[in-house]
């Protein structure tokens, strides 16, 4: 049953809206072999600001949609920091007027709080890369991963002053995450990101900058490129390679963006499990209990509405009708996986995100 749900999730469009806004949202299909079949799983978790007037939100969504269509985008990502190299990375990014995403380790963030603050202050995105990166502790069983993700959540929220939902699995998800890992972490509200261009800067110690640049240039120039780099201890060569990498993507006409709610996240398909985990019903039930406690967790809309209102799926009109008090919200999936949201709910200033999965709707309240 769990696996069936998982398959439904991968097969369906996922999207998010701000209450009060009327937003046509395009679900972006995966264009790469890396993310084939899994992009829907990663789509979503955008939480547009509710303060933004509906008309402006709609206009800006359309405008950014157009810009995206016109220009390819590259997401530079740096893992395993912060370290002594990170300020140099930040200096280069500032000089080049480029934004990037940093997947930091909880234990390194604790040691270099000022660097983490600088990452946020300078407009880069922050992601969770677990606490200590030890594969056996993370992948032997889910609860080990969960503990480190939550521990790092707390550290990053304290330092950055806001919750961080972006998450990258140490070593990538391939062979490390099984379907339950994906499903549980997404249910918890995490947005999982792998990459589609590996700079090769961690395939052995001290890979020279020239080789890193060469490897990046050999990568596929898809419309959305997510480049894996490292700014952890021992990665001085990555710093040296960075200006040439930036110059390369600039010359190819790319714009640089951060992995925020607007970004399409690539995730690997589920590979053969390296870890020989066994999931008992009891372990799964316990894990579901755990993930439901994280604020930002996705809950089935029916559960969430239990004391508030109702939702009905109109199979004929193919729309979900949500009623809360005297207010009605209609979620209408259209062609090419466009979905329109009609109506507004006034939920007391908070923002809600919806995810439509087949005929099931999930909601996350922020
Ligand atoms: Zn890593």
TrEMBL record:
<feature type="region of interest" description="Disordered">
    <location>
        <begin position="30"/>
        <end position="60"/>
    </location>
</feature>
<protein>
    <submittedName>
        <fullName>Polysaccharide deacetylase family protein</fullName>
        <ecNumber>3.-.-.-</ecNumber>
    </submittedName>
</protein>
<dbReference type="InterPro" id="IPR002509">
    <property type="entry name" value="NODB_dom"/>
</dbReference>
<dbReference type="GO" id="GO:0016787">
    <property type="term" value="F:hydrolase activity"/>
</dbReference>
<dbReference type="InterPro" id="IPR011330">
    <property type="entry name" value="Glyco_hydro/deAcase_b/a-brl"/>
</dbReference>
<dbReference type="InterPro" id="IPR050248">
    <property type="entry name" value="Polysacc_deacetylase_ArnD"/>
</dbReference>
<feature type="compositionally biased region" description="Polar residues">
    <location>
        <begin position="30"/>
        <end position="39"/>
    </location>
</feature>
<keyword id="KW-0378">Hydrolase</keyword>
<feature type="domain" description="NodB homology">
    <location>
        <begin position="72"/>
        <end position="257"/>
    </location>
</feature>
<dbReference type="Pfam" id="PF01522">
    <property type="entry name" value="Polysacc_deac_1"/>
</dbReference>
């Amino acid at each position: 049953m769990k696996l069936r749900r998982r398959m439904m999730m991968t097969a369906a469009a996922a999207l998010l809206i701000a209450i009060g806004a009327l937003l046509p949202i395009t679900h972006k299909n995966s264009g790469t072999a890396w993310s084939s079949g899994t992009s829907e799983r990663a789509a979503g978790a955008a939480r547009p600001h509710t303060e933004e007037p509906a008309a402006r939100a709609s206009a800006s969504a359309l405008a950014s949609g157009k810009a995206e269509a016109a220009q390819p985008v590259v997401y530079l990502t740096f893992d395993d920091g912060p370290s002594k190299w990170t300020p140099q990375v930040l200096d280069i990014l500032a000089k080049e007027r480029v934004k990037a995403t940093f997947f930091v380790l909880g234990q390194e963030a604790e040691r270099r709080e000022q660097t983490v603050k600088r990452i946020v202050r300078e407009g880069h995105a922050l992601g969770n890369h677990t606490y200590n990166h030890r594969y056996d502790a993370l992948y032997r069983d889910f609860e080990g991963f969960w503990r480190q993700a939550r521990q790092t959540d707390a550290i990053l929220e304290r330092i950055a002053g806001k919750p961080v939902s972006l998450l990258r699995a140490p070593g990538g998800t391939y062979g490390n995450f099984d379907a339950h890992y994906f499903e549980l972490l997404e249910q918890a509200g995490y947005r999982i990101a792998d990459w589609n261009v590996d700079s090769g800067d961690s395939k052995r110690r001290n890979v020279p900058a020239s080789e890193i640049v060469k490897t990046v240039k050999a990568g596929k120039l898809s419309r959305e490129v997510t480049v894996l780099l490292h700014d952890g201890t021992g990665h001085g060569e990555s710093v040296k390679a960075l200006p040439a990498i930036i110059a390369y993507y600039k010359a190819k006409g790319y714009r640089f963006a951060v992995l925020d709610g607007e970004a399409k996240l690539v995730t690997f398909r589920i590979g053969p499990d390296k870890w020989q985990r066994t999931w008992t019903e009891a372990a799964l039930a316990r894990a579901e209990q755990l993930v439901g406690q994280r604020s930002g967790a996705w809950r089935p809309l029916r559960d969430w509405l239990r004391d508030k209102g109702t939702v009905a799926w109109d199979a004929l009109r193919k729309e979900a009708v949500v009623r809360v008090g005297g207010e009605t919200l209609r979620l209408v999936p259209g062609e090419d996986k466009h979905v329109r949201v009609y109506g507004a709910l006034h939920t007391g200033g908070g923002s809600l995100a919806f995810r439509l999965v087949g005929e099931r709707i999930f909601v996350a309240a922020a």
